[in-house]
Design goal:
mainly alpha, two-stranded antiparallel sheet
Length: 409
């Protein structure tokens, strides 16, 4: 499909159909045609390979290590599966374009891959919205977090979002099809012309459901989460200073008390002290109670430090998920803007957009594809616990593989 007013008839699948369209019969994107061709030749296979390995490892780490005790891990594991599925369709389209194997432009496979790409793309968006909502609740309402942000609830949300995504995209089996181009020799998987007017309505609903509403929700909640993180850091610094001063004051008082008691004990013999404790047990109990009271500030400090450590752990999780959703917005924003401009400026008025906009869309799609393969790198760079679990998982598997031949013998 060469016309951009039809490219945006549906978000993910029409983008996918046209993303590798560097056919000389189409637009050349001069003077960027050579750069685009180079990027499509080398960059897309790289992000596919990185995405396959990264999403597979991410899913295994989140579901087979102690990270599975966290509710957020199930959102991220489902996100890895959705991204993996979308990259599978990208691989099929890329291989079809480069004549490696041709199944995409055949009837049946065309509808299936269009449906799969749309389900994975929409599910990926709403999974990011889901764990952003969870982190917002954990930061904004920390007392309710243990009751709301549970593993069972996360599983229910993931299953519900998957069911809604699969059911809402079933219409694509009727909309998409193999269409012969002008020469009649090269069939292409495209939208059927008979449904073009119907797709205008679907496109508006799809734009609201997978673009505007998720974008507004993610940006709004991320802003509030970042604000709460900033306020938490300020409170933590202030509490650390106060706690240090309180601890220093307690140490000074204890040292002063010990000096006085030491001077008093020097005047008394050890035998007199032993006799007095036996003859007056109440004084011994008072001394015991005083020792307990002296230990209370230390116990309070330890409990406070434990709570701060737990809170810091939650804040680290929040920071990582905040980064993931922010990168998602950054990589999708160019394609969002291009889609909205084409839809409202050209598609509704039935005008052909300029070639420059087509070139911008091609570069924006490269960023859009990057979003489906970059999450593993974000986990590895920003998640200390994720790196430890990944290293432990790899080490255990390597040890198991190394010991297998000895067991066989």
């Amino acid at each position: 499909m060469r016309r951009l007013n039809q490219i945006f008839a549906n978000f993910s699948e029409e983008f996918l159909i046209n993303s590798t369209d560097l056919d000389p019969g189409g637009y050349y994107c001069d003077p960027f045609h050579s750069y685009l061709k180079l990027l499509h030749t080398y960059y897309i296979p790289i992000i596919i390979a990185v995405g396959f390995v990264g999403n597979f490892l991410s899913c295994v780490v989140f579901l087979s290590t102690h990270l599975k005790m966290r509710s957020s891990s199930y959102y991220l594991a489902a996100l890895a599966i959705a991204d993996f599925g979308f990259l599978c369709v990208v691989l099929v389209v890329h291989c079809s374009f480069n004549n490696v194997f041709e199944i995409y432009n055949s009837d049946g496979w065309c509808q299936f891959f269009v449906y799969l790409s749309s389900v994975c793309a929409s599910l990926s968006v709403w999974l990011i919205v889901a764990f952003t909502v969870e982190r917002f609740i954990a930061v904004q309402y920390p007392l309710q977090r243990p009751h709301i942000c549970t593993v069972s609830r996360a599983k229910t949300v993931v299953i519900s979002l998957t069911a809604v995504a699969m059911l809402s995209q079933l219409y694509l089996f009727w909309i998409a099809g193999v269409i012969n181009n002008h020469d009649g020799k090269h069939p292409e998987c495209e939208m059927k012309p008979a449904y073009f007017e119907f797709m205008k309505v679907i496109n508006f609903v799809d734009t609201m459901a997978t673009l505007i509403v998720p974008f507004v929700l993610i940006v709004t909640m991320n802003t509030m989460i970042a604000r709460n993180l900033f306020l938490f850091r300020r409170r933590l610094q202030a509490s650390s200073i106060d706690e240090y001063l309180d601890t220093d004051t307690d140490k000074t008082e204890l040292q002063h008390s010990n000096v006085q008691s030491g001077c008093s004990n020097r005047r008394q013999g050890s035998q007199q002290s032993h006799v007095s404790q036996k003859s007056n047990p109440s004084r011994s109990s008072k001394k015991y109670n005083n020792n307990q009271l002296e230990r209370c500030p230390c116990i309070h400090i330890k409990m406070s430090a434990r709570n701060i450590a737990s809170t810091r752990s939650q804040q680290n999780i929040t920071k990582m998920l905040l980064l993931i959703s922010s990168v998602f917005i950054a990589l999708n924003f160019p394609s969002y803007v291009t889609r909205l401009s084409v839809y409202f400026v050209f598609t509704l008025q039935q005008k052909n957009p300029p070639e420059t906009l087509y070139c911008i869309q091609q570069f924006a799609m490269l960023l859009y594809y990057t979003n489906f393969s970059i999450n593993f790198l974000l986990y590895a760079m920003c998640g200390v616990t994720f790196r430890r679990c990944l290293w432990q998982l790899l080490r255990n598997n390597l040890k198991r593989l190394a010991s297998t031949p000895f067991h066989n013998k």
